[in-house]
Amino acid sequence: MESGTLKGHTAMAAAAVIWGLMSPVSKLVMQGGEVSSASLATFRLLGAAVLFWLASCFVPREKIDPRDRLKLFYASLFGIIFNQMAFTVGVGFTSPADAAIITTITPILTMILAAFVLREMITGRKAAGVCASAVGAVLLITGGSHTPAAPGDNNLLGDILCLASQCSVAVYFVFFKRLIGKYSPVTLMKWMFTYAVCACLPFTFREVSSVPYSSLSLQTWTGIAYVVVLATFVSYICLSFAQQRLKPTAVSMYNYCQPVIASSVAVLWGMDQFGWLKTLSVLLVFTGVFLVTRGKAPAAMQEQ
Fold first, then answer.
1. Residues 158-205: pLDDT tens digits?
2. For position 299, what pLDDT does the model report?
């Protein structure tokens, strides 16, 4: 294996591990009730925006075409605001394992959109994969309400929000494909996260300002730092680094490691449990993903 390829796989593996751990870490941060899901999502957006602006000081400056300003806002709307806000809030209501498993259907959602928008052909194998994963997702969502839930949890609502976040990022991949390739990752993310903060902060400011910062534990602060620095900023850098060295198929395959990591950690930490229905759901989702990605894989991977 060439050095560049090995580095790409190493970076992508690191991103997969970071994203896989984000669900249980986020759940730990929010389970005390001091930090709401909306507050954590806002911390993620604001922290990432600041870090990407700082990073932009160390890379060549790029001028944004005025015609792309509105496109960047819409890209931020689907790629970050709807995606990350819905996912982070959804994790607050559902189990980490459910949230992570639902993320595996992103390539399938992307394929469906691409068939309608980009006129890409859907083969019989791909159609079978879509059906298998759809059945798995439905079983997971309807079966989630039968698992023990913490006070205040709503598994059905949480699963639906996590599913909505995956639909949003699929729209982002298909409709903003040209824009994504036009600018460097730092420039693109710098502006997208900035627009996301401007759009979300007016609605979440009250919750963010009501967080009892002085009484937060070290564990909570560590979890927030993990979500902001590692699960957002560092993971996006790893993803961009890997995309320069690996084919899209290789990159997208790492997305399927996330539920394995998240579910394993959640069970070890006593935050979740696996029954036969959830196991069947996982097998169906993974079978569908395998059938779809045996051919030409989706061009990109979910950004969390």
1. 888 888 888 887 788 778 877 877 888 889 889 999 999 999 899 889
2. 42
Q: What pLDDT score was predicted for residue 76?
A: 92
- For 181, half-sphere exposure in the C-beta direction (CA atoms, 13 angstrom radius) is 9
**267: which residues sit within 8 A by CB, 6+ positions away?**
97, 273, 274
The pair of structure tokens assigned to 65 is: 């075409």
Residue pLDDT, tens place only, 13-49 = 888 888 878 877 887 888 878 898 889 989 999 999 9
Structure tokens at 6: 């090995």
Q: Are 87 and 163 a contacting pair, CB within 8 Å?
A: no
Structure tokens at 135: 């059945």
- In this structure, the number of other CB atoms found within 10 A of the CB of residue 181 comes to 9
Q: What is the model's pLDDT at position 52?
A: 95
Q: How many CB atoms lie within 10 A of CB 244?
A: 11
Q: Which residue has the tokens 């790629």?
A: 79
Of the candidates 72, 103, 78, the residue with the CA atom closest to the CA atom of residue 231: 103
Residue 48 tokens read as: 């990432």
Q: Contact 182/81 with Cβ under 8 angstroms?
A: no
Classify burial at 260, counting beta carbons within 10 Å of its beta carbon; exposed 0-12, middle 13-18, buried 19 or more: middle
Label each residue of 42-88 as H, E or C: HHHHHHHHHHHHHHHCCCCCCCCCHHHHHHHHHHHHHHHHHHHHHHH
Contact criterion met (CB below 8 Å) for 94 and 271: no
- Which strand (E) or helix (H) includes residue 41? helix 37-56
Dist CA 209 CA 105 (whole Å): 35
Note the pLDDT of residue 172. Answer: 81
Smallest Cα–Cα separation from 169: which of 20, 301, 257? 301
- Is the Cβ–Cβ distance between 155 and 90 less than 8 Å? no
What is the Cα–Cα distance from 237 to 62, expressed in whole angstroms? 17
